[in-house]
Amino acid sequence: MHRLTTTQAANVHVIFVAFETLRKPRDVDALIPAWSLDLKTWQKQVADVIKEQKGRRSLIIIDTTNPLSATEASNLPALLSSFIGPTTSLLAVYHLDVLHRPQGCGHNAYAPAPLTLLKYLATTIFTVHALQHVLACKAARDRSHAEPLFGLEEGTEGVLQGLGANGKQEIVLEMEHRRKSGRGVREWFYLPLQPAPKPGVSSGTASTTHATKIVRSGILLLEDHPQYRTPEQEAEAQAGNGGGTFELGLTEKQRRDREGVVLPYFDAQKGGGDGGRILYDMGSEDDFDEDEDEI
Amino acid sequence: MSTRNRTPAALKPYLRLPSETSLILLTSTLSCTVNWLTPRFIIAAINGSGHGDHTDTQSVPGAREEGSTVILTSWMRNQAYWKTELRRITAGMDMDKVIATGKLAFVDCFTNLTQLAPEKALSEQESRITQAIAKANGAGRRIVLVLENPDILIALALTTTYDLSDFLLRLRNQVHSTVLVCNADLPLVAAATTSQEGMQNTPIEAETAAFLVQQAHAAQYVLGVRELETGAAKDVSGVLRVTRGGAAYSWDDEEDDVEEVKELEALYLIQRDGNAKVFERGTSMI
Fold first, then answer.
1. What is the CATH number of the domain that holds A35?
2. Which of A97, A103, A158 sits opposite B32 (nearest CB)?
3. Range of the domain at A136
């Protein structure tokens, strides 16, 4: 299931255009119930809210573009682009598994699918995966097995979702970002959704997650995730050894011996600060000569 | 009206009154119907999460103990069916009496379904359900809406996916929470899989699949029943799977104290008296 959570960055006005959400999500400044309004009305409401911001940065979130792509199939790019400006960004969610079926007889059979248009329009595309499913697929790939299928794809009667979907602990993000230069960046990320439990706080109360805390708690590349590596890679990463023929480390005894060594003239290094001096401890066999120059 | 011992312990966390505006999706298949689960949701909502069972340590502090008003709307069955079914499961609950107390309302969208003009069907039914909600609103109890098989409207070509989901949103907006019962047989959902991409599906296949998947996206959790992979068995009626739906992520301040609903895959057995047992795979239910 594909679903995005939002974080509110500092001083960004968040406008939520709801097609399937009834209650205002946390951190959202304006909720526009587009499901109950016609196209012109909610378009105007969004435009009005943006105008009110007078140049303050705003983020428009559309909770699903599937109904729009059915009713406004040919008009979709123009419609969405009309909101985007120098101070406005748009985050639109498209459910990949909701079947697209354009409505009306006026539909052009030769027009590209809405998803194709949306992907063409987008600067960044995030596809959300469940970690459990990604790991299971990788384990199968590593052993050259066929990758398992989940949810609807399982083809089991009565199964809508695979177990492990929509985990609240973590998700995997597949990112495709198009730079201005035209070069694309493709990367897979691991995103924990729960901050690490603080010491002294029971795990039960740690689940009181605030959306803004979530991202700070550490996004990392999927290939750096301990569970994604094979045990061999993991052991290698733990050892941190380049694989040379020398033993660069120390044994425990060597380390203790090294710590026990007292460097010569250690107190001199603490510094007397009065220039060069000769420090000499008289031994029992030394014969003190009064005639010699004073030390 | 004792319901004690009639609700399997493993099911109790899922029968608690869910958070505001939430949707719970129950899916059924031809060989395994979810009919045994729907009445349990109705009874749990009417009686409140406490069930009068104070030893239930699982209940969250501050959990809503008081009951709700249930508005049961069926596109598949009439009131006589529900009367028998509720009496059987609760061992003696009289549906007519509960309706008289205002804790339950039944909206029959089944009986005249085929006699309605297609263009009027949806609006006529919506106004009847809205009336029932308005009537129940006066009582000051929370309202739980149970919708049984509105997906039949798509199969009868009385509506389309997006009209029906707007219809549901309008209704959901008026009540505390909604339980939606749908059929999820393979032919009804297969159109949504990638293997079917580019294939010409019939409108009913495509529309039903789109509707069902869309509702799963909007659902807080999905409870699906299906047949055992190995077919029918004497001591197992079917498999129950509970998964988190697409709306499991709605982080609201109010929801912070609500425990996360755990995923579950378990077997169940419906006995001749209507009693249900839910047990882990591999364990004996006795």
1. 3.40.50.300
2. A158
3. 124-238
